[in-house]
Design goal:
The protein is an alpha+beta fold. It has six helices and six strands; from the N terminus they run H-H-H-H-E-E-H-E-E-E-E-H. The longest helix has 24 residues.
């Protein structure tokens, strides 16, 4: 059997052979495919545990423990300690934060989740970048929000090494009464 480098060269030179080879490697009957599926499921379980054992318990330290020491958040290296600070600030603004994974998928070293975040606005962020700075100086409204979010995690060695998210921040600001819809 070809090594990975030779196999990749075959993609350009021998596409039909590579398709057959890929099919054989990814066939449910092979041990390799089973191992890959198991690894992908482990990665998805790791992300589920991040929410269940850390964030949904408002435990910043437990949540940060799922991250690598040199983890990146939105492209910036913040490390595990930086993630703990981010979580502490999130919980200070929405002390009843809850995330529910509605759907997740895994491929290679990535897990992507569609998440529903709920919480009640009861505090002000002390870090300027939390929520992109949108809530800086905004007095707590006491209002509850339901916000659709998409989170992407990169995982290596059983730890989250990178995280980025896309959130419906406009919807959140509208629910808080900070921004109104045009008439």
């Amino acid at each position: 059997m070809k090594d990975e480098g030779e196999r990749r060269k075959g993609i350009a030179l021998w596409p039909a052979v590579d398709v057959v080879l890929h099919w054989r490697l990814s066939s449910p009957a092979t041990g390799i495919a089973r191992e890959v599926r198991m690894l992908l499921e482990e990665n998805k379980r790791l992300v589920q545990r991040l929410y269940d054992e850390g964030l949904n318990r408002q435990d910043a330290r437990a949540g940060a423990a799922f991250y690598a020491l040199n983890a990146k958040n939105h492209g910036r290296e913040v490390g595990r300690a930086g993630m703990q600070k981010v979580f502490e600030m999130l919980f200070s603004v929405f002390p009843d934060f809850n995330y529910r994974i509605e759907e997740s998928t895994a491929e290679d070293d990535r897990v992507v989740c569609r998440v529903l975040m709920t919480g009640t606005h009861r505090g002000q962020p002390k870090l300027p970048d939390v929520f992109g700075g949108m809530l800086k100086g905004v007095a707590p409204t006491g209002k509850s929000v339901r916000v659709l979010q998409f989170h992407c995690f990169r995982i290596a060695g059983g730890e989250i090494t990178e995280h980025a998210a896309v959130r419906d921040d406009l919807g959140m600001l509208q629910q808080l009464g900070i921004v109104t819809r045009p008439a």
